[in-house]
Every structure is written in structure tokens, then in C-alpha cells.
Write a structure and sequence with these properties.
With 526 residues, this protein is mainly α. The protein is built from 20 helices and two strands.
Length: 526
Amino acid sequence: MNWEFAALAVLAAALISGFAWYERTHPGSRMLALVATLAGLAAISRIAFAPIPNVKPTTDIIFIAGFALGGAPGFVVGAVAALASNLLFGQGPWTPWQMVAWGLCGVFGAVIGRLTDQQIPRLWLALFCGLAGLGFGVIMDGSIWVTYAGGQGIDQYLAISATSLPFNIVHALGNFIFALAFGPALLRALMRFSTRLQVTWTDLAPSSAAREGARAVAGPLAAVLAALVFAAALLPASAEGASSSLRAARYLVASQNSDGGWGAAAGSRSTAMHTSWAVVGLAAAGYDPLSVRRAGHSPAALLRGWASRARTTADIERTALALGAAGISPSTGGLLTRLRRSQRADGSFAGLVNLTSYGLLALRAAGIEARSGSVQRAASWIGRRQNSNGGFNYSRRGGASSIDDTAGALQALAAAGLGRAAAAQRAARFLAARQNGDGGYPLQSPGSSNAQSTALAVQALVAAGRDPDRQRSGGARSPLSYIRSLQVAGGVIRYSRSSSASPVWVTSQSLAALAKRPLPIRIVRR
């Protein structure tokens, strides 16, 4: 029996036991309605706050439900809230873990309620809600350890826990603040309901009981379902995007090597290219890349080593982008000096549009101001290479325009403060007009869509001030929807629908697109 199967067996046993426990309490129709309403409220609160990672009042609602109503109702509120909300966020191997974790938050609330005789000050209520959030994080770290880590050594669990600690702390702080704000009011309301529910019922004929239960439960459940549908209509892209981004980030965390870097795939030798793009992708999604560790190693040492050894223009530019995303000094290993020396007197880098675009972005990632001479010379050189159709070729004006080169040039122009200029807007229109019917973008139009070109186009459109969720030229799907359609089990994103290849850099660049963050990505540590 492997770890994954054993873990699922334990989770299944916990869920069956929790629901059986609830059934043995013989809940009346009004309790059923209240539990359903609270589960719906907890699910909706998760959806409503989906754009803010790990900040949501869901745990507070579940904890307070257990505190006021008892362990069995609290467990069911948590388990059902996880299952219902994942109808929008996406079901997967994480769902039973979330059901058990939030169910236990409800049980924890009941334990605290019993110990305090259901009398608790506002501050202590908030502190216990924060503690429940940390407990939830500990269990979910275990889910990643068992499901994605590829091994179950304690050092792997500690590495995962260290990586997720900032997000678990944010979750706990959010729980604390939400509980301070509305916790006592919700608790008072539930305590009043609980008191009114503690009455003695006379036996009814089975048919009468069934009719009463149906009438009592149907109304609240219909309201909950309607609220879920309404919330889904309001926030479908945000909720789906949050789920896709989280799964992609989890894949990158799980595929990190023990030296702190990334290879082409999980288990492959770390390379400068894949590590650099993984760092950029994680930073774009709001994660501190240097907090992502495996066997105690972050990518910091590798990045510094590659900064010292980088000599070709492409290597220097890519490493500079990664250093900026990681918050490491661009002068490390003399990299900034070599980056400046790579720029020619005419403003270009190697006389190529693509290298000049990324050279400009690297300068900005290194902290060089947009109005500086080196940045403006590069932007001016790029602008003079624009084709009549608004696109760019990798090397010269008049060559076939490509999506990737146009996207790079557009991001560079925006980074130089020219995102609203005529050249940038023409490039944006070029990209918008070449979207395929499946929502994606090809390397060169016409052609088949792929994740890399689509991700670059999304970042460029964002840089030009356009909303990629509303970009639907040639079809009913957005480019972000196309990227999400390529995501498979484990969070990895395939290169295209016709290819099963899924190198790390594809998921990394797609993660930055899902986060709607154009280059350069910079983390500034104080």
C-alpha cells in the first residue's frame, strides 16, 4: 500500500466517521437548514475573497459554527463548505484534505466552546480562529507532502512547511482580523438559534415528518444554491484563475530539486533557464521565490553562481530578470556591469529585436529608471523596427511578425513608460487581431495555439492596459481560458493540446500570465 492510497483511506474513514457522527445526533429539519446555510455562507465567503490568496473568513465561520452548535454540526459545515466551493475552484485530490481540515476546524471550535462553557471574549475568539487557520495550513502542507512531494521524508515536509509558512501566517492573520470584526456578532446569532433548537419534539408519522423536513430544508438549501450560482456569475474568472494559479505554483514547489533549482521537469538536473523562469513565475504570482526551499536550499545560491558565470547576452538578460524577481542585487557577480556593456551605442542588444526587448526589461528589473538614457535608447531602437502591421520580427523591420517577438517588444515599450504610445497600441492591436478561435495564440499567425505564445501575449496585453479576460477575438474563449484548458493533474500546464510536453518553463510563464503580471517582475526587500 503506497502513501497516497493510505492517506486517502484515512481521509475517507475520517469523513465517513464525521458524517456518521452527525447522523447519530438525529438533527432536526431546522438544524439541517442551519448547517446547510452556514456551509453555503462559508463556501461563498471563500469565493468572494478568491482574488486575495489565503485571506478569507471561511475558517472563522466554520470555527464559530462548531463553537455554537457542537462538534458534529461544525465538522459537517466545514466538510460541505470545502466540497461546495470546489465546484467552482475545481475538484481534485486536495478536496478530501480540505474537507477533513475544515471539518476539524469545526471540531476544534466545539472543543473550545466546551472548555469555555461557550463564553469567550472577542480577542480570545479571534486568537483561536487564527490558530484554527494555522492548523488548517499544517494539514494542507501534509496533503502536498503526501500527494506531490515524490517522497515522504520529514525534511520534505519541513521544506514544504517552510515554503508555505508566509501564506499560512497570512491565512491566520486574516482569520484573526475577520473574527475581531464580525466574530462576536455571528456567535451571538448562532447561540440564539442553538438555544431555540434545543426543544423536545414529539414523534410524527413518517409521511408528515418527511413533508415537514422537505418544506423546512428546501427553502434554505435553495437560497444557498442560488447564492452559490450568483457568486459564480460574479467571480468566475477570479475563482478559476486563483485555483489554476495555486495548482501551478504547487507544481513548481513540488518539482524543485534538492539544490534549490529547477530542471526541465521534476527530477531533471537544475538549469539556469528553468530555474530563472520558475523564479520569475513564482514571483509574478505573489510568492517570494527565496522562501521556496527543498532540503534546506533556496534558488539564491544557484542564481548568484549563474550571475557570476553568465556571458552570452541571452544568459545575462535572463539571469538579470531572475535576480530582480528574487530581490537579489543586480550587481551580483558583476552581472549589471556586463548587462550594460552588452548594449550597443545605437541602443540595441546584439542588433536583434528580441534581445533588445529583453535587454530593456533586464535593465528595468535591475532598477534602472524608465527615463534613463540606456532604457530610452533601447526603446527608440525597438520602435524603429516595428512592421507596418504593428508586429515585430526577431531581427529586422520587414521580416515576418511573430507573436512572441511582438509580445516581448510591447512589454519592453511599456516598461520604458511608452505603453500608451502609438507604437505600443499598434502592437497591442496586432496581438488582439491574431487570437485563435480556441482563445490561444500561435508562435506565428496563422498557426496552432501554444501556452508559451499565449502567456507572452497575455503579459503584453496587460502591459498595454488591456484586460486579457475580455480578449475574445475570433472565438468565445479568452487567452487565460485557453491556458487553463492545458492544465492537467498536478497543476502542470502542457505546451499545447497536440503535445504532451510540459517543461517547467511553460508552467512558469503561464503562471505569470494567470497572475496578469507583465515583465519585469521585481521584489524589493526592505
